[in-house]
Amino acid sequence: MTSRYTIRLIAPSGYCINQAAAWRGVQYLQDLGHRPENTEVITRRFQRFAGTDAERLADLNDLADSPSLPDIALAVRGGYGAGRLLCDIRYSALADRLAQHPVALCGHSDFTAIQLALFAQTGFITYSAPMLAGNFGAEHPSAFTLQHFRDILRQKSYTIRWRGNTPENLSLKGTLWGGNLAMLCSLTGTPWMPVVKQGILVIEDVNEHPFRVERMLLQLWHAGILQQQQAVILGSFSGATLSEYDQGFSYDTVWQTLRELSGIPFISGLPFGHEQETVTLPIGASAHLQVADGDCSLTLTGHPLPPASLTHE
After folding, report:
1. How many C-beta atoms surround the C-beta of residue 199 within 10 A?
2. Which domain holds residue 280?
3. Same domain, 92 and 133
4. Share of the chain above pLDDT 90, in %
5. Would the pTM count as exceeding 0.85?
6. Domain edge (last residue) among 90, 121, 146
7. 99-136: b or e for each residue (b if 16 or more CB lie within 10 Å)?
8. Residues sharing a CB contact under 8 Å with residue 184, sequence separation 6 or more, in sequence order
9. 311 inside domain
10. Which residue ranges does the record assign to the LD-carboxypeptidase N-terminal domain (predicted)?
11. 184 lies in the same domain as 214
């Protein structure tokens, strides 16, 4: 049987400039049999944000007190604004309430700040996942993305396989964490940055030139964060324009530089990030990473499954 979810929309970041895509996403989810609610956040606006700080904060904090909870809380879009909310999120209350009634808290990009802060403060696991406007509201939503989103929410143990351009052969177990690289780096030195030892760090970004990506990774190295990881999994890095000035400097040279500096494997090729085809990853889950002759697999366990999924196992 196919799970039918109640999906509460949340908008903790930027105003949804592409209104047509957001409403197309609502219709797409409805056509699949799901029940989107709180759709008024799509049109809500204050300056460049999807509402005032208080309104956007309430999207999250109200989950702690709501008498009825959704199966999924889904971010409308990213942009900017989540960082303004971090000091006032009711972390313990949210974690306690959502432990009693598991909710898949889903989003990516700017939402990474909230996801990592929740994990740092409470250990609560969220999903780096497709969002309403950019993914479900695409002109032609990706069947690949939908399948991975649907399947991981229904399986206690979930394996993702891909082909990576990497020389290492590995078998590593640790906590999977990360998300958008720029947002992760913005938390360095704050209470919202998780302390993950022997972790498996997954990163992605968009519209960031390779030199900016290298600068961010060096920040993680100089802060002592990268040294604590067993491996780095590379999602998509796109949207940057290289020029003659770069003289061959590219993402590949960045990965090689950081490999040589840190001694840490950098595993490429995971379809994850600001693309139409993206896997869904539980941030904070237990992971088993295996690599053999470029064949990569990531087995994930310990992530919260929405009640509607459990009724259809």
Report:
1. 22
2. 158-301
3. yes
4. 95
5. yes
6. 146
7. eeebbbbbbbbbbbbbbbbbbbbbebbbbbbbbbbbbb
8. 112, 116, 178, 193, 203, 216, 220
9. no
10. 7-128
11. yes
CA neighbours closer than 13 Å in the CB half-sphere of residue 57: 12
**Catalytically annotated residues:** 109, 204, 274
Confidence of residue 21 (pLDDT cuts 50, 70, 90): very high
Residue 1's pLDDT band, with cuts at 50, 70 and 90, is very low
What is the full DSSP assignment across the chain?
A: -----EEEEE--SB--S-HHHHHHHHHHHHHTT-EEE-GGGGT--BTTBSS-HHHHHHHHHGGGT-SS--SEEEES--SS-GGGGGGG--HHHHHHHHHHS--EEEE-GGGHHHHHHHHHHH---EEE---IIIIITSSS--HHHHHHHHHHTT-SEEEEEEE------EEEEEEEEEEEHHHHHHTTTSTTS---TTEEEEEEEES--HHHHHHHHHHHHHTTSGGGEEEEEEEEEE-----GGGTT--HHHHHHHHHHHH---EE-----SSSSS---EEET-EEEEEEETTEEEEEEE-----HHHHTT-
Query: Does residue 140 sit in the same domain as residue 167?
Result: no
**Position 310 confidence tier, pLDDT thresholds 50, 70, 90:** low
Tracing tokens 């030139």 back to the chain, one arrives at 209
Asked if residue 307 is part of any domain, the answer here is no
Which token pair is 69? 């909870």
* Shared domain check, 280 and 192: yes
